[in-house]
Amino acid sequence: MSPRLAALAPPVAAAAVRLLGATLSLRLAGVDAVAPRWRAGAPVIYAVWHGRILMMPWLNARLRRTHGARAATVLASRSGDGELIARYCRRFGLEVVRGSSSSGGAAAVRRLVDVLAGGDDVVVVPDGPRGPRRQLQPGVVALAALTGAPIVPLALGARPARRLSSWDEFVVPLPFARCAAVFGAPLAVARDADRERAAKDVARSLDEVTEAADRLACA
């Protein structure tokens, strides 16, 4: 991608998503499980599969207005794609920490620990930045164990929507689609927990909320 196009893409994408969001009908499920933590100022770690990230900054902005949610800090890779994602997220008032398992991971984890210690929420895409699709990488579980902040699985489904032929089956709602955002129950990870088992529990819960969001969008 040319530098000029890279500079234009995030603001254009953010504007397009805001226009798209204005046409969508939205149903929420499971929000009562996390809203008490918003009110108490208790941080959470949102986990979202990569294929469902497009509308998440828009969803966060909407929930800040309507339900008292907090602006979250997003983990994005240091790749070129990660730079575009970072610029896109900042258009919705979100902070971004850069790093991944292949580059800058340790520094990113330290920064996220500080963010959570300060009472702010974090968003992690545990099968990003390049998959495999819906295979959870261990970083999100380690972060929860280190900080005591629970993991909240989150997904957004839409009908009608376009599902791209990308590795993550990226979902793009169509204008005037019915959308559903589903929050899973917060999952705490003890410091001495079996992290492999905890990762399987988180992945299973994330799959469940993703399927539930798709069903609710079709209802």
Walkthrough of the structure:
With 219 residues, the chain is α/β, with parallel strands linked by helices. It has one domain (3-218): 3-Layer(aba) Sandwich (Glycerol-3-phosphate (1)-acyltransferase). Helices cover 45% and strands 21% of the residues. It has helices at residues 3-23, 31-40, 56-66, 80-90, 105-117, 139-147, 195-218, and strands at 25-29, 45-47, 73-76, 95-98, 122-124, 151-163, 171-183. It is globular and about 45 Å long. The mean pLDDT is 94.
CATH class wording: Alpha Beta
Poorly predicted runs of 5 or more residues: none
User: What general outline do the C-alpha atoms trace?
Assistant: globular
Biggest beta sheet summary: 7 strands, mixed
The second-level CATH architecture is 3-Layer(aba) Sandwich
Report how far the terminal alpha carbons are from each other.
Answer: 39 Å
Give the structural class: alpha/beta
Instruction: Tell me the Rg in angstroms.
Output: 16 Å
Tell me the CATH superfamily: Glycerol-3-phosphate (1)-acyltransferase
- Count of extended strands: 7
What portion of the residues fall into strands of 2 or more residues?
Answer: 15-25%
Instruction: Please work out how many helical segments DSSP would assign.
Output: 7
Strand order of the largest sheet: 1-7-6-2-5-3-4
Kindly state the mean pLDDT as a whole number? 94
CATH topology: Glycerol-3-phosphate (1)-acyltransferase
The total number of structural domains is 1
**Share of helical residues:** 40-55%
What is the H/E order? HEHEHEHEHEHEEH
